Amino acid sequence: MAARRYWSAALLFFLCNSSFLIYINAQESASTARNPDISENIDGEGQTTPRTPAVEEKQWEPTEVQEASPDEDGPVTAESAPPLPGTPRSFTGTHQREDFQEELVIRPLHSGDIYASFQFRTLWETDFMKGNKVSHYRLFPKSLGQVISKFSVRELHISFTQGYWRTMQWGQPFLPAPPGAELWVWFQDTVTDVDGTWKELTNVLSGIFCASLNFIDSTNTVQPSASFKPLGIGNVTDHRFLRYATLPREIVCTENLTPWKKLLPCGSKAGLAVLMKSEKLFHSSFHSEAVHIRPVCGDVECKSVSWELRQTLDVVFDLHTSGQGKREWSLFKMFARTLTDACPLASSSKIYIDITDNPEGEHFELSPATPLLSQAVVLGDRRTFSVYDLTDPSTFGTMRTFNVQIKWKNTEGDMLRPLLHAERYVAGYGLQTGEIHTLMYNQHPYRSFPVLLLDSVPWYLRLYVHTLTVTSKGKDNKPSYIHYQPSKDRIRPHLLEMLVQLPPNSVTEVTVQFERALLKWTEYTPDPNHGFYVGSSVVSSLVPSIVAMDTNNTRDRPLFSSFFPTKEESSYFIRVYTEPLLVNLPTPDFSMPYNVICLTCTVVAVGYGSLYNLLTRNFQIEEPNPGLAKRIANVIRRMRGVPLL
Amino acid sequence: MLANLVLSFNCTYLAVLLSFIRFNKHVGNFFSSQHTNNWAVLVCTSRFWFNYRHVANTLSVYRSVKRLGIPDSHIVLMLADDMACNHRNPKPATVFSHKNMELNVYGDDVEVDYRGYEVTVENFLRVLTGRLPPSTPRSKRLLSDDRSNILIYLTGHGGNGFLKFQDSEEISNVELADAFEQMWQKRRYNELLFIIDTCQGASMYERFYSPNLMALASSQVGEDSLSHQPDLAIGVHLMDRYTFYLLEFLEDIHPASKTNMNDLFKVCPKSQCVSTPGHRTDLFLRDPGSVLITDFFGSVRKVELTTDAINLTEPITPVEDQEKEPYSYVDQLPVSEIIHQKPKQKDWHPPDGFILGLWTLIILVFFRTYGVKHLKHIF
């Protein structure tokens, strides 16, 4: 009996001890787990993959990863500098090479302004088109890769621009863009419902770029029949798979730049993208950021396909607002930053300064001096550039920073006049009718060339196509090809495409009259008195070039000269955008419904109320109420039986 | 007797064990609020340059909320107009909250989800209730669940019982209360903090009837909320008073602070604000003194640590290309091809209703006049 009691007590004692010990152990492990130190390595076994020191010390050699298997350091080493493309041990596993190049081209403009163009290109040897499933993304951003696969996109071109490119003062840009947002997409021929896919694609892109691209719908989308041929490789050019839309009202601000920068492999932390600070970039005359995705030749014989993602950012800094009136530019003055290193993931990182107008150094002086020179044929002209190679550590000098300075000595020098230029304006008066005039200038002295004009006018400007006239030098100029698709109210816009031959040294004017429609009152924007925008016209043309163009499109060229593929040597392809138009539509007074309701209700209340009272009121004569003394006297009199007062 | 000794020993043992639990504060606080994620919906409803202060209000709350830990993917920011890159802004890409341009609340890393004309009453209510079209991207959705704490901040011009959106439409307090009830029925929030900075803001929370709602407003019914200070270089008023002092209060909060809601109710007394801020806590189940500011303005993140190896899936090998003929670029402006282009074969659509009706009418009239016997001549 006693032994059993002892035994049970001892068992209880033992259980208490063990539970206590287990609890203490759990406490310890919980407290260590609750202080995570994610920045330290998980494995303490001697795997050292320090991120920053490897980048600083050995910039262009592959980082030595001392740990054997790639599986364990999956999430950690993905952030450290991976081995260069070309080394076989890449995390994609198969032989899919990725290559990233970055470039900055600086071109001083004749008016004292300066034009800076950033170009970032990621080339990936994979093929989204054959239904391949891609699962590992390294330099190519995953969000865009998934968009391409899911929506079967063959080419995607999107641009966000603030400001208008002034061709006559600044020359031709490397990659033109219209004000606002522009999106044009070629779908693959496996897509069955192009319109539905287009709508979903615009919604997804509006989320990626923080822009209101979801306003793109059938009322501002067109299907050009001859313009916007694909810029990538391929044989199929059935225009059923092409869609083009612009949103001229779209604003560009830091919220569009932020996701754009996040698509770059190095983000905005290293390389040329550190220069992109929004306070300076948006304080400019022209700012345009674009993303272009297309399939290109993967090798010299063009037997395999690579996908190219190009991100470009063009900015023109004004002499007076950013330059404070002094004609002296430097990277620090333009961007408020200097460069400290190149992007470690880039295979080439260069800065080009256009010195064609300054062969002997008589107009401006460039510092630090560089022995590297490069000549490139761009926009039909052979230009000379001073090159700074940021992958070479000696560029940064002892201070580890790099700042280019351009100082002008005199303001002479003339500018090459651009050969093609276009303008557009609205003529007429009043809020009923008007006239759209588009002017195209051919400034070549003796050559004429064809241009393809694409006009997309919203449905609420009802074009009178019978009043369409095309005149050059006062005479009628009949276009060799016209494609017109009339609008349907609230369903689709007007589309006008014309192939016009511009005679040399002339102005060609295209006029068409229109009538303004009255919208339904819910269709007006909250600020209707601002006006309604009409998107820019697109003028695509093959312009004769001054020097012979290189028709071998697979050769290695600087990025800014290799965007538009060239087929013949004597001409090159450019696209010019006109200004967008702002038209006022007849706007009703939106306070009138409230006023009408108040007025009507007042009239009805007064009128009906008076009538009702007159018809139904019954009049009675009433004795006035006697005073208190008289009432008491009346009471006494009634008691006495005497007649009342 | 020995059993009694052992029993008492066990009791003291248990007492010691329990005291360990009591001293462990982490366990206690972790389970008091019961939420596992945080969301924020920040809305500015005013358009036009002179309403700069409303955008600055919203951006300062956005900035505080991001600083305290809520990531961009959990914030739905709606700005009805663009002030930063407005052509009237003398310093583009900036929105200041203090005069002399001390603090740029716009920053360099901002993601606006709904901007410009997209900020409408319909979109706001759809975001709250989750009834969005299927193609809406994730960044524009409020993907909250029943363990989410949501912060909703509205600012703009308002009146007794309504808030004006973009100078063209209004949301009433009844609609707002019904939207919150929908959220409650669909279990879209655990606790909700509603802050409004408009004139007569207290009228907007009068009609709430769903549980677990706490509301703050910058002024009572019949009072106007005033703006704080103008900046002479920019030319407009930069912030509203209530949000200005709210921002000052929030700048002192860091992710580990223990300040509670009672301190938030004291922000901007009548001497500073000129209007009387109000609050409503009767629908809230917990005591406001035990609710931390960081329960709504900060963020809880679930962190899972593992020391196991993760097996990545095998990369899918691409299909081997059989054909080897070279590709080529397309001619950008093939003039001869364009001139000789055949007109597009348009898809044949069945005749429209109008045409069908017209032909039916013609045939009917024909047979009425001439009789059915002519049918044999046709068929």
TrEMBL record, chain A:
<protein>
    <submittedName>
        <fullName>Phosphatidylinositol glycan anchor biosynthesis, class T</fullName>
    </submittedName>
</protein>
<keyword id="KW-0732">Signal</keyword>
<feature type="region of interest" description="Disordered">
    <location>
        <begin position="32"/>
        <end position="93"/>
    </location>
</feature>
<dbReference type="GO" id="GO:0042765">
    <property type="term" value="C:GPI-anchor transamidase complex"/>
</dbReference>
<dbReference type="Pfam" id="PF04113">
    <property type="entry name" value="Gpi16"/>
</dbReference>
<dbReference type="InterPro" id="IPR007245">
    <property type="entry name" value="PIG-T"/>
</dbReference>
<dbReference type="GO" id="GO:0016255">
    <property type="term" value="P:attachment of GPI anchor to protein"/>
</dbReference>
<feature type="signal peptide">
    <location>
        <begin position="1"/>
        <end position="26"/>
    </location>
</feature>
TrEMBL record, chain B:
<dbReference type="GO" id="GO:0006508">
    <property type="term" value="P:proteolysis"/>
</dbReference>
<dbReference type="GO" id="GO:0042765">
    <property type="term" value="C:GPI-anchor transamidase complex"/>
</dbReference>
<dbReference type="GO" id="GO:0016255">
    <property type="term" value="P:attachment of GPI anchor to protein"/>
</dbReference>
<protein>
    <recommendedName>
        <fullName>GPI-anchor transamidase</fullName>
    </recommendedName>
</protein>
<dbReference type="GO" id="GO:0003923">
    <property type="term" value="F:GPI-anchor transamidase activity"/>
</dbReference>
<dbReference type="InterPro" id="IPR001096">
    <property type="entry name" value="Peptidase_C13"/>
</dbReference>
<dbReference type="InterPro" id="IPR028361">
    <property type="entry name" value="GPI_transamidase"/>
</dbReference>
<feature type="active site" description="Nucleophile">
    <location>
        <position position="199"/>
    </location>
</feature>
<keyword id="KW-0337">GPI-anchor biosynthesis</keyword>
<keyword id="KW-0812">Transmembrane</keyword>
<feature type="active site">
    <location>
        <position position="157"/>
    </location>
</feature>
<comment type="pathway">
    <text>Glycolipid biosynthesis; glycosylphosphatidylinositol-anchor biosynthesis.</text>
</comment>
<keyword id="KW-0472">Membrane</keyword>
<keyword id="KW-0732">Signal</keyword>
<comment type="similarity">
    <text>Belongs to the peptidase C13 family.</text>
</comment>
<feature type="transmembrane region" description="Helical">
    <location>
        <begin position="353"/>
        <end position="371"/>
    </location>
</feature>
<dbReference type="Pfam" id="PF01650">
    <property type="entry name" value="Peptidase_C13"/>
</dbReference>
<keyword id="KW-1133">Transmembrane helix</keyword>
<dbReference type="GO" id="GO:0006506">
    <property type="term" value="P:GPI anchor biosynthetic process"/>
</dbReference>
<comment type="subunit">
    <text>Heteropentamer. Part of the GPI-anchor transamidase complex, consisting of PIGK, PIGT, PIGS, PIGU and GAA1. Interacts with GPAA1. Interacts with PIGT; this interaction, via a disulfide link, stabilizes the expression of GAA1 and PIGK and links them to PIGS.</text>
</comment>
